[in-house]
Amino acid sequence: MEVEGKVALVTGAAQGIGKAIIRELLENGASVSLIDIAVEKGEEYKTLLDEEFGEGKAIFIVCDVTNQDQLTDAFQQTVDHFGKLNIVVNNAGINNEKNWEKTINVNLNGMIRGTYLALKHMRKDEGGEGGLIVNMSSLAAHTCTSGLFSRSHFIQRNLAPAPPPLIATQSGSRACTKLSQPNQQDRERERAAHVPGLMPAAHQPVYTATKSGIIGFTRAIAAASEVGQYGVRINTIAPGFVNTALLQSIEHEENMGEYYKYEANIKEMMNHYGILEPLIVAKGVIELAENDTLNGAVMKITVSAGIHYEEYGPQYQAKIC
Ligand code: NAD
Questions:
Q1: Alpha helices in 28-109 (DSSP H)
Q2: Which candidate among 126, 253, 313, 314 keeps its CA 20 to 30 Å from the CA of 16?
Q3: DSSP string, 106-173
């Protein structure tokens, strides 16, 4: 699908990854609907986008993805305003282990709500034009593939002090600030050591549950779309650490609850694996739009390997009857 001329709706669009996705979509010629609970940030960003891309290319709708009525209205307003809907990115997410029910409600329920609303507007078998849905997962997710990860591997990567950085040097005084980009030789060393894959995060069990759920739901509904000929491709993106405000949530007891004590471990992991910039995730969305063969794909993004895909053996394919 060419992004040029399409209409996209992105949740969690006022900052971080969603903000970068919005800009990338606009730069590729789409019109965009920004959905976010953060009123001030959303309005400010919309004003900036009007100045940069011209009025009429972006609208901002205040909406809480946990509220079915608000989200239903936000989709309808988008279609009423632009006359169609082609791309939906369910990106809104939080990291809160203390208020874990809220985390499930935003990350998982919000994504399911957004997917069903997107299908309602886009399904070809129900009169729509078809389209693309992208659901934002994370590398902090469990998934069945080849069973390559042993329990000791899991513990080593989550709880033991991380080995010294292989691919990046830290700049600045904070542990989770910018890391330099790896060169080709560094990349090869890291690949040889191991590229981080999908893996439950010991200090974020509920976050991991939501992000695993997103992968499971997306792969299942993608298979349903194929069987039912919805004409809608549904894929997920699982990035490693990304340089956004969400990373700072690990510094607060009110976010992490009893896992707050693992702050230093998580920061060591950030140091070891590196931190992505939001732009590469945004570019991942464009790749998923442009590659019409992808449905049910799990795009992984890491500092060491860039954009690549989870490979599922035949026994792990979604069952299509
Ligand atoms: P962020 O905190 O910078 O941005 C999240 C956005 O979602 C904010 O604008 C916030 O206002 C909005 N939001 C939160 N709750 C909402 C709700 N109920 N309704 C509507 N909007 C809501 O975080 P981010 O890093 O940009 O995260 C975006 C997505 O990427 C999340 O799903 C997150 O889990 C995922 N992710 C982040 C990282 C990372 O390291 N930053 C890594 C992998 C995946």
A1: 39-53, 68-82, 100-103
A2: 253
A3: IIIIHHHHHHHHHHHHH-GGGT---EEEEEE--SS----SS----HHHHHHHHTSPPPPPSS--B-SS
Whether pLDDT at 182 is above 60: no
Tell me: the pLDDT tens digits for 79-110?
A: 999 999 999 999 999 999 999 999 999 999 99
Radius of gyration, CA atoms only, the chain: 19
Arithmetic mean of pLDDT, 216-245: 97
The per-residue pLDDT for 165 is 41
* Confidence at residue 196, expressed as pLDDT on a 0 to 100 scale: 73
What pLDDT, in 10s, does the model give residues 273-313?
A: 999 999 999 999 999 999 999 999 999 999 999 999 998 87
Residue among 63, 111, 109 nearest 89 (CA): 111
Query: In a mutational test of the pocket of ligand 1, which residue from 244, 277, 300 has the highest number of ligand atoms less than 8 Å from its CB?
Result: 244
What is the per-residue pLDDT across 62-79, written as a single tens digit (0 to 9) for each? Answer: 999 999 999 999 999 999
Best residue for ligand 1 mutational test, from 246, 266, 298, 301 (most atoms within 8 Å of Cβ): 246
Which atom, in ligand 1's list, is nearest to the CA of 106?
Answer: 18
- Residues with beta carbon inside 6 Å of ligand 1? 11-12, 14-18, 36-38, 64-66, 91-94, 106, 136, 138, 239, 241-242, 244-247
Question: Ligand 1 centre and the CA of 244: distance in Å?
Answer: 8
